[in-house]
Amino acid sequence: MKLMIADDEPAVRALVHATLEDDDYEIIEAGDGVEALEMARAENPSLVLLDIMMPRLNGLDVCRSIKSDPHTSDIVVVMLTAQARERDREHGMAAGADHYFTKPFSPLALLDLVERVREGQPDQTPR
Amino acid sequence: MGRLRVQLSVLLAMLGLLVAAWGATIFLGARNGQVSTESQQFEVSRFDELRRAAASFRVRLVDASANQRDYLLTSDRRARERFDATCRQAEDRLAQVGELARPWPSLGPMLQRIRSGYVSWERQTLGEIGVHDRFGTGAAMALVARGDSSLRFAQLRERNEALDEVLADLQVSAARRQRSTYRETQRLALDAAVMILATVTLIFFYLRRAVGAPAAVLRWASSRLAGGDLTTPIELSVPNELGAVAADLEVMRRHLAGRIDGLLRLRELSAQVVGATSLQGLCDAALSGLGREVGAVRAALGAVDRDGRLRLRALSGFEHPEATAGRIAAAHHELCAFLALKTLLAGQVVGIGDVDEVPKPVALGELAVVLRIRALALVPLVSRGSFVGLLALFWEQPHRLDTEQEALLGLAGNHIAGALAAALRYEEAERAAGEARAVFYAIADGVLLTDPSGRVTAMNHALELLGGWTEAQVQGMPYAEVLPVEDEHGRRISPEARPLAKALATGEPASDQGFGVDLVTRDGRRVPVAVSSAPILDPRGEVTGGVDVVRDVSREREIDEVKSALISTVSHELRTPLTLIHGFAELLVLRDMPVERRRAAAEEILEASRRLARLIDDLLSVSRMESGRLILDPRPLDVAGLVERTLSPFRAMAARHSIRSEIPGGLPVIWGDPDKVEQILTNLVGNAIKYSPAGGEVVVAVSCDDDEIRVSVRDQGIGMSPRDMGQLFEKFYRVDRDEVRRAGGTGLGLYITKRLVEMHGGRIWAESWPGAGSEFSFTLPGSGELAGEGRR
């Protein structure tokens, strides 16, 4: 199963990597919003972890674009952001996100979520 | 002077006497007439009786004579008896005539003759009868024939007839006398009436001359006086009471004219003083008005100020008013002690006829000499029962006020006091208005005044700047046109819904709650504002206008936005390292990992912790700096060594960057806090590395000129636009570029750096070439002069 982590903070990407690397996930990384959108279209991952405050294009816009494009609208989008207010969560869900994780997050909870997504979508997971 | 009365009394007395005389005449005439008429009537009837008696005597006489003849002829006894009877009757009649004729003695002789004639006749006839009786008829007849008795009879008859004639005459004259009495009485009455008429006419003319004409003149004069004509003199040269009245009236007219003249002058003065709004104008008007009347040449006006102290406020007629005012002010205490304040407070005019004669302090004597004052009058100015000021009038020569002048000054003082009180109130109102105006125009918030219908009457400078209108342009315009406002969705807010409309309608202050209203300026810009309004009320609580206070809240809104951005940034910056610490720590705790990955996770935790610590340090620094609690610990600094020390960790870490220093020898030792200077340098070098992601050279150059050390840090990084340069050193400012965002940071570094440089008394600035790099420079003063803020 292919996952994408988009975050401008390399250490966060490293944390996600460290969380998921034991299982057979293919993890691709994007450092900003534009890169994330391009990669989502090109690689068509099953799940995207999206930071919101990213250079060039923010995560909400990336989410909207993914969800509005039929080719990518099936992608499960998980917002992974430091914006923890309830209003931010509403904005995120309004933009089409499937899940909303706030930083700091529990790596095990994330792993749990990813596994649930994989079990829900076995066919789409390339092995 | 009872001349007219005397004259009138005399005339009336005369008239009275005449009337009385007239009445008496008429009365007496009437009575006399009546009396004489009665007596004459009586006389006439007596004459009738007399004549009848005489006629009857005559008849008896003839009968007696016939009876005698008859007897003589017939000798009839009866005839003889008849003769005797008729004789007796004749004698009776004669006696009756004598009796009736007694009032007229003139008839006496005539009656005597008749009586004697009768006696003689009777004797003759009786003789004939004797003859008859003795000698018979014939003898008797012969005797008769001799005719003696006939003669005597004829004589008697004649005499009797003569008496009758006399009586007839007397009767006629009596009747004539009666008529003449009437005529006389009538004439007397007529004469008296004519005299009365003449007297009345005389009185009439006299009255007309002595009373009527002067009375008309007096009436005319008094009606002129009553009509207010006091200019025409009253002239009446009549030497009586009316003349005296006229003279009194003339005196009265002169007095009144004098009074009116005085009143007119006072009115003129009053008009002048009332027209004076300034105290100087009032003083000038008082001098020009009163100076003429009393001859004063200079004046000074003092007013009681708000502390209740009398202060000199204006001078008139002095050659050097300012110098004079200074002199008078210098002698203030002596003057206050000298003035008869008790008398003045009671409202009395105080005159000092000759200064030289009055005991006074030396200073005042000199003052009087210098100001050439010889006499003065002090007029207290009392308005509504309170002492509001003092007017002093001065003469160069001795001058004593007479009663009239004193009264005039007192009266004028009342007018001037009223005007002074008004002028002081005006001054106070002007001052208050000036304060209000100054506040109105100086206040930083926009303020707009309107009339009750919402039309603009005034606008202050802040609102002119804010809205783009000038005060002159908006006079009379509806305020909603001058200051259109829109809500947060860009919808125009209707005038009725605005606070000012509510304030004007209800008489209560109103405001729009909170932010969210934008003012549309004249040139179409939208400025966030907060508007509060209040009605302007007159003392009866009627709305006479409104005030709209428009505060530009763009700064507040900006701050609000900045604050919210800051919270967001800080939150993000805190959460990111926390996320890493939390996440890696959880992995370490809950998962089995190879040693090298454990180590890597621990290093991430370490780095994230450092980052968290740095952020907290920065925030605390800012907080300390802003509250003034950050203080320097200055000591002598070796700049060269400090730079090298600071650069070494960067050199150790930098992989893509080369860090070079250019430090000349012989740098002066300066004072500074080594930790803070190191912090400055670290920040700048850190930024240089952070914002030149492609690598390149970072040069730290130190130079010295004029006792001032200058350090510059140059990189070959992304550079900055001129717009960014302006806000570079502001708190939480971050250049809005991806590279910058990618580099992370709180926006506090340069702010802290600048504050630290300034605390050392230095300057910091930046130059930049977009895409080619930036250079940040700061100076540190060599003389050891530190900014006071942080000195220990």
Short structural summary:
Chain A is α/β, with parallel strands linked by helices and 127 residues long. Chain A has helices at residues 10-20, 33-43, 59-68, 86-94, 107-120, and strands spanning 2-6, 26-30, 47-50, 76-81, 99-102.
For the structure shown, list the relevant keywords.
heterodimer, A: 127 residues, alpha/beta, five-stranded parallel beta sheet, 5 helices, 5 strands, globular, B: 792 residues, alpha+beta, seven-stranded antiparallel beta sheet, five-stranded antiparallel beta sheet, rod-shaped
Helix and strand arrangement:
The complex is a heterodimer of chains A (127) and B (792).
Chain A: E1 2-6, H1 10-20, E2 26-30, H2 33-43, E3 47-50, H3 59-68, E4 76-81, H4 86-94, E5 99-102, H5 107-120
Parallel strand pairs in A: 1-2, 1-3, 3-4, 4-5
Chain B: H1 3-74, H2 77-100, H3 108-146, H4 148-226, H5 241-275, H6 279-294, E1 298-304, E2 310-316, H7 321-330, H8 332-338, H9 341-345, E3 350-352, H10 362-370, E4 375-383, E5 386-395, H11 403-442, E6 446-450, E7 456-459, H12 461-467, H13 471-474, H14 479-482, E8 485-486, H15 499-506, E9 510-511, E10 517-520, E11 526-537, E12 543-552, H16 554-590, H17 595-626, E13 635-637, H18 639-653, E14 657-662, E15 670-672, H19 674-690, E16 696-705, E17 708-714, H20 722-727, H21 738-743, H22 749-759, E18 764-769, E19 773-781
Parallel strand pairs in B: 14-16
Antiparallel strand pairs in B: 1-2, 1-5, 3-4, 4-5, 6-7, 6-12, 8-10, 9-11, 10-11, 11-12, 13-15, 16-17, 17-19, 18-19
Helix pairs in contact in B: 1-2, 1-3, 1-4, 2-3, 3-4, 4-5, 5-6, 5-11, 6-11, 16-17, 17-22, 18-19, 19-22
